[in-house]
Amino acid sequence: MRGNFKSTSTLVARTKGLMGGALALALGATAAFAAGEAAHIDRQSWSFAGVNGRFDRAQLQRGFQVYKEVCATCHGLKRINFRNLAEPGGPEFSAEGVKGLAESYRVEDGPNDQGKMFQRAGRPSDPIPSPYKNEQEARAVQNGAYPPDLSLITKARSAGENASVFATIGSMLRDIPSGYQEGGADYVYALLTGYANPPADMKLAQGMNYNQAFPGHQIAMVPPLQPGQIKYEDGSQGTVEQYAKDVTAFLAWAGDPKLEERKRMGVLVILYLLITAVLVYFAKRRLWAKVH
Ligand code: HEC
Fold first, then answer.
1. Radius of gyration of the chain from its Cα atoms, rounded to whole angstroms
2. What CA–CA distance (Å, rounded) separates 31 from 219?
């Protein structure tokens, strides 16, 4: 009896320890958000969200157009090669279209037989050339600020909030079962649509712009999107929200080009495990039938 009682109390102590650890983790996370002054980020509905999520091809194509015509002036996309734009699961441009696109760029190659680097037309196997040679050149041109490469930006950012510990635990309980993974996309969309006039009592540093979504609210990037700036061929609206939505979806694909394959495989694996579980259950009943 006593032994039993003892082991229960150790169990309780252990559980308490674990809970304390989890609480400390959650607290640490909120503290980190607080330091960055994270803003509230609205959730958007994305076609690629959820267990069965798929990219909208037309949206990815428009998003690439926005990237190419606007963002590419300052931001690289070095992890995407031209040929990826024609692969299944992405924007799925035609192979000829992508070849033509690649050829419209000049890329550095070499060294040649004389040991010199030389310029040639791009090929589908080339990575999309970045606007700057390196971070130093980018900073020199951008007044000291660094426009990051956008290949993985929707993975590198999230929609963190200054929520209380309990709210954080609450959102974890909701987001883990629903498989919420679009925090990065929600943040990039909020950033692109988040420019506004600063509050009266706020003084912006020189060359900075007020942005509701950016941690600290002062960003060096000038508002990149203006209404009517890009002409869409499929008749989609030329609003800032539409451009932002499209380019964000495109960047979400760039950061996770195998998303569709991954989700399809996930569903199959779960199905397989369910069927196996049923079979194992009946096998167990049969094997133990005589003992019962
Ligand atoms: C004129 C140059 C310029 C253009 C055009 C531009 N950006 Fe930026 N961008 C910047 C600079 C500079 C920064 C760094 C800002 C900072 O650190 O304050 C930045 C930062 C960012 C960030 C990172 C914000 C963060 O959380 O750190 C994202 C995302 C971004 N830009 C997306 C875009 C997208 C998408 C486009 C096209 C619609 C675009 N930018 C167009 C200059 C530009």
1. 25
2. 22
Res 147 pLDDT > 90 = yes
| Structural tokens at position 194 | 């988040």
| C-alpha separations of 164 from 135, 167, 182 in Å | 37, 5, 21
CB-CB contact of 104 with 64 (8 Å)? no
Tell me the Ramachandran region of residue 50: left when phi exceeds 0, alpha when psi lies from -120 to 50, beta otherwise.
left
18 conformational bin, left if phi > 0, alpha if psi -120 to 50, beta if neither = alpha
Say how many Å lie between the CA of residue 62 and the centre of ligand 1.
19
Give which of 208, 168, 209, 212 is closest to 187, Cα–Cα: 212
Tokens at 124, concatenated: 């589908």
Short-list 246, 218, 251, 220, CA closest to 232? 246
Of 67, 74, 192, best ligand 1 pocket probe by most atoms within 8 Å of the beta carbon? 74
Nearest Cα residue to 102 out of 116, 83, 115, 77? 83
What's the rounded Cα separation, in Å, for the pair 102 and 91?
15
Q: What angle do CA 256, 88, 266 make, to 5 degrees?
A: 55
Structure tokens at 37: 């002054």
> For residue range 217-269, what is the model confidence (pLDDT) as tens digits?
999 999 999 999 999 999 999 999 999 999 999 999 999 999 999 999 999 99
Instruction: At 244, list the tokens.
Output: 């932002």
How far, in Å, from the CA of 132 to the mean position of ligand 1? 14
CB 243 within 8 A of CB 195: no
